[in-house]
Amino acid sequence: MQTAAAQPAGPLTFFHGTDMTSALQLLNGAALDAATAGARKIDGPPGFFLAAEESDAEHFAARRGRGGAVLRFELSPSAAQQLMGAGAVRRPIPTGPRSPAFAGDELHVPPGAYDLFDRLRRAGEIKVVPA
């Protein structure tokens, strides 16, 4: 992620692949919820994951079966910096033996930063639209 001295001038764009129900809830302003996310989790650590490349998010949406959806999230430089300060990490997408070759990396938002993420969304610092 960017440091304060090297902040990008515009928003950072990420993508989230999910099921249609979750996508509609997020588009309608639903807060991130650790219990709900945990119940729908397929694998990996807890958290909210945003892929830097839309094609990678499409992979994760397809894992949800028919009706998967991809959302585009735009984070202001300030939102990205605040999330990083709260424990979010930009890193390579973890892979396993059957993983595809991913095109980009991910932003992992841990459950402890969900409240901040939601506050930033309500403040307009994070925007979500269909991809």
Question: How does this model look, in words?
Answer:
By secondary structure, the chain is of the alpha+beta class. The protein has one domain. The chain contains five helices and six strands. The protein has helices at residues 20-27, 34-40, 54-62, 77-85, 114-122; strands spanning 12-19, 48-51, 68-75, 89-92, 105-109, 126-130. Strands 1-3-6 form a three-stranded antiparallel β-sheet. It has a three-stranded antiparallel β-sheet with strand order 2-5-4. The radius of gyration is 14 Å and the shape is globular. The model is unreliable at 1-5 (pLDDT under 50).
Quick tags:
single chain; alpha+beta; 5 helices; disordered N terminus
> Stretches where pLDDT falls below 50 for ≥5 residues?
1-5
What spatial order of strands do you see in the largest sheet?
1-3-6
Tally of individual helices: 5
How many β-strand stretches?
6
What is the end-to-end distance? 22 Å
* Overall pLDDT score: 90
Silhouette: globular
Bin the helical content.
25-40%
Element order: H for helix, E for strand: EHHEHEHEEHE
Percentage of residues in strands: 25-35%
Oligomeric state of the chains present here:
single chain
* Whole-number count of domains: 1
- Rg: 14 Å
Q: Indicate the structural class.
A: alpha+beta
Could you describe the largest sheet, including whether it forms a barrel? Answer: 3 strands, antiparallel
